[in-house]
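Hi Q.,

Before the meeting this afternoon, I wanted you to have the copper (II) ion prediction in hand. No need to reply - just skim if you have a minute. The sequence and ligand are here:
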Amino acid sequence: MNPMKKLIALLTVLGASVVLPLATQAADQGDMGMSKDDMKMSGEHMGHMDMAKSGSTVTVTGEVLDMACYLDHGASGEKHAGCAEKCISSGLPVGLKSADGTVYLLIGEHKPANAELAPYAAKTITVKGKFVNRDGINLLENIEIVK
Ligand SMILES: [Cu+2]
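Predicted structure with the ligand bound:
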């Protein structure tokens, strides 16, 4: 290889090494941009949940769920009403699924609310209570059935 060819080869390699990182960086930025948006979206959602609601009194309308069967196999609705009533009466955790799909655990004031909720198993009711969210779990406590 003569010196000129050597130089061209070197420049080509340098050129490639300059272009490649740029291309990689651009791709990374593209990915980062997307995940940033995703994180921003979930961050805003969480922020909304935490700041606007956690610790505050809220009123939520939704279906009364037997959490055992709902978590186990997604059971809800009229077909499951009988089982839900049995499960809730027996003391299993009770939930409320709002129209937007958010599920809340329902409890009274340092006591279960199962006895008052069992008759509403699989029915849509409105509940007022203190909302808290911790580690991704929603809770409505000190609940009152509004209607
Ligand atoms: Cu059940």
